[in-house]
Here is the input.
Amino acid sequence: MHSNRSSLLLLFAYPVAFASAQTAAKPAGADSSASTQHAIELVEQGRCKEALPMLEHLMPHLADKQLRYHAAMAEARCAMALDREPTAITALLQLKREFPDDPEVLYITVHYFSELASRTSQQLAAKAPASSQARMLEAEAFESRGAWDEAAGIYKAILEQNPSAPRIHYRLGQVLLSKAGEIGPVDDARAEFQRELQVDPRNASAEFILGELARRAGQWDEAAQHFSRASTLDVGFSEAYLALGISLTSARKFAEAVRPLETYVRMQPEDPSGHYQLAIAYERTGNKEGAARQITLRDQAAAAQGQKATGPDGRPVR
Amino acid sequence: MRDSIARRRFLQLLCSSATGLAAPATDVAPFFEEIPPAASGIQWKHVAGLSSKMYVPETIGPGCAFLDYDNDGWMDIYLVNSGPCDFYSPSTPLSNALYRNNRDGTFTDVTEKAGVRGNAYGMGAAVGDFNGDGFADLYVTQYPRSILYRNNGDGTFTDVTEKAGVAAPGWSSSAVWFDYDNDGRLDLFVCRFGDFDKSKMVYCGNRDTGAHYYCSPSVVKPFTCWLFHNNGDGTFTDVSKESGIAGKLTRAWGVVAADINNDGWIDLFVSNDGLANCLFANRGRGKFEEIALIAGVAYNSFGAARSGMGVDAADYNEDGNVDLFVANIDHESYSLYRNNGDESFDDMAIPSGIAAATRFLSGWGLKFFDFDNDGNLDLILCNGHPDTMVKLYTPTVDYRMPMVLFQNTGAAWKNVSAQAGPVFHKGLAGRGLALGDFDNDGAVDVLVAVNDGAPILLRNNVGRRNHWLGVRLIGRKANVDAIGAIVSYQAGALKRRRVRVGGGSFLSSHDPRMVLGIGQAAKIDWLEVRWPQPGGGVERFHDLPLDRYVTITEGQGTWK
Here is the structure.
C-alpha cells in the first residue's frame, strides 16, 4: 500500500511542479490565488497534511480555470496519500467534469480509481475474508488471468455453502463458456444459466445468454423466447431487442421482428446492425419505403463507424 | 437485473462457435485420391513471387481450369502462373501451362505449341466458346492486363485481346462467360479487385516490432467490375456503365452467373472482400439492378460486410430456385443462402452446421456437385488464409488449411471430410478449384490450384458406385455453351433439376458437361432440357443410356 502511494506521489510530481512554475509566472491576483499557489507548493514539498485543508477550503472560490485545474490535481494527490477517499473522488470528478478531454486528467483518473479499487479489495479481504463477496472477488481475479478452473472452483465452493446465492451460477456459466472457448461444449454452461434463473428469475443477462446459445444452434424460436424475456425483464437492455429481431427474421417472422427492431434503432441509432435488420424486416413485410430509409440510415451509421475505425492517416486500422 | 458484460462482444463471440473438423477415419476407402505428379505427368508448379514487400496479389492466385481444348471428349487442364509486372520480375521466365489429356490418366504439356503462356501476373481462367466455332476459348485474368486466347481449332490459340477489346486494365480476378442480353452470344464479366498498382501499396504490419504482414484488402480502394458485350464479330463493347454494373464499387473475388429469379435473364452474384457482396439482378434490356442488401446476401446478420471470396450457385434443396454460397475469411463463417423464390434469401449456414464447420477457415475455390452420384448436390471447398504471417497475430489460424467436403443427405449437410481422403487432412494454400471428369468415368474429379506450389489433382473414387448420365449441351439459338440451361430428369422416385450456371468457384473454370447422378436406379425415365433464350425451347428425351456421356444439341430432338 505504501509503495503504491509513493509511486503515485512520484508519478504526479511533474504535473504539480509544472503547475507551480506556470502559476508562479502569472501576476499576483486575489488572496485566494496566492494561497492556492502556496498550497500547491506545500504539496510539492510533500506536506499534504497542511496543504489539503487549505485546498479544500480554497477550491470553491477559485475563478481562474487553469489554477483550479492544478489545485484539483494537487488536492486529488494529497487526498489519496492521506486516505481521504471521498475528497479524492470529489476532486477527480471535478477534473473530469471541467477537463473531460485532458489526457492528464484521464490518465490520473485511471490510476487513482485503480488504486481505490485495489485498496477496497484489500479492505474486503481483511474485514470479511470468508464472505462470499470476498471469494467472488478472488474468483474474478482468476477469471481475469484466464485461470478458469480456479475460478470455477471458488464459485462451486460458494454454491456448496449456499446453492441459492444470486449471480454465482451466472458467473460459473460464464467461466464454463470461457473455458470451452469457440469449439468446446456448452451444455454445462447452459445448465448453470438455467440454474441462475431458478435462483433469480429476473436475471436478464442469463436469459440473454441462453438466447444466444439457442441462436448459435439455429433454434430461432427458443432464442426468441429468451431474448423476449430478457427485454421484458430489463427494458433498457438494447442488445436483447436486436438479438430478438435477428432471431425472428431468421425464423422468417418478419412482422414480429419489426417492433423489437424499431425499439433497438431508437435506443442505438448509431449501430448499423439494427438498421440493416429492420430494413430486411420492413422489406419482407411490404414496407419498401421504410426499408429504403433504413438502408440509408444503415449506410450512414456504417460510414460513421468506418471513420472511427481509421487511423490518423485515414487508413483502416488493421 | 443486468450484468455489466459487454453484450455485443459476447453476442459476436458466441455466434462464432465452431465444432471443428472430425478426426480422420482410417478404415474407410477415401472418396478422393490424390494423383501424384509422377503419375499424372503434371510437373508444373505455381510461383507466387512471394516477396519481402508483401504485395497483396502474391498470395491470392492461382486459378485453374478443366477444358476440352481439342474437342476429343477428354478434359484437358489449364493452370495459371504469376509473371512479370510492376511489382515482380521473375528470375526465370514463368509460364501458364496447358496439359493435354492423354486419355490414360496422364497429361502432356502442350503450352508452347498452344501458345498460351500468359504474359503478366496471372490470376485465373474463364473458358467459353465466345465465337461459337465449337472450340473452347480461354480468357486469362491477369494484373495489369488480361488476355483473350481464341482457340484456332488446330491445337493452337491466338491472343486476340486487343482486337476484342477485353484487356480489362487493372487487377482482374475471376471472370465468367454468360449471355446477359439473350442474343445467343457469350458475353464476358470480369471481376476487378479494386484500384491496385505497386505505387498504391501501403505498409501493413507492426512498426514497433518490425513485423510485416500481407495487407488486409481493405487498404485497396474499391473499383468497378467490367461487363463486355459480345458484338459477334470478334469484338466486344464495354457496357459496364450503361448496364449498371459500374454503379457499384467492388473488391471482387468471385462471380457466378445464374438466373436467381427464374425470369429468363441471367443474373450475377459477386463476392466482395470487406464490402457488401453484389447481386446484380438482370432486368432485361441490358440493365442490371444491384439488390444484394435487400435480398439478404450482402452482409452478415449484423449488417456488416464479410470478406467474400469463393462463390457458387445451385439449387441444392430442389425447390426450383438457385441458391448461393460464399466462402469468407476465418472467424466470419461461410454463407449458405437459401433462395426463397422472391428475390430474397435466408442464410442457412448456422442451422445447417456449415457456419460452425467453417468458423476458422478462409475459403476460395468451391463448388456444388454430386460427388457420389446419389442425386443430391454436395459441396467441396478448398481453403487457406491470404496472409502467410497470420499465425503471428491470430494463433488459432493457419496459413495452410485443409479442404472440406460436405455431403448433402437430402435433409442435412454432413461434413464427410474425414472419409474424403488424406488430402482433406493436409494444410494447403488452396486457391482455385475446378471440377472435371478427367477419366470419363462419371465420377467428377477435382483440380485444386495451390499458391506457390504444385496443383493437386484428385480422382473421385465413389461417383462410379452409382449410376449416372453425362450430358454435354450445345446451344444453337441459345449460347453455344448453354449457360442458363435447365436439365430436369426422373429415375424412378428420384426427380431432379440441374441448372447450368456460368463460373462459380474462384479464378477457375469447369468441365462444361453435366453429370446427373441417379443412385442405384436402373434407368432414367426421362430427361428434359429447357434451353436458355433466345431459343427457350423445351426438349424431352426418353430411352437414354446409363453410365456414359451423351451430347444434346439444341433443336435436334435427339441425343448422340
Summary: The two ends of chain A are 40 Å apart (CA to CA). The domain at 236-318 of chain A is CATH 1.25.40.10 (Serine Threonine Protein Phosphatase 5, Tetratricopeptide repeat).
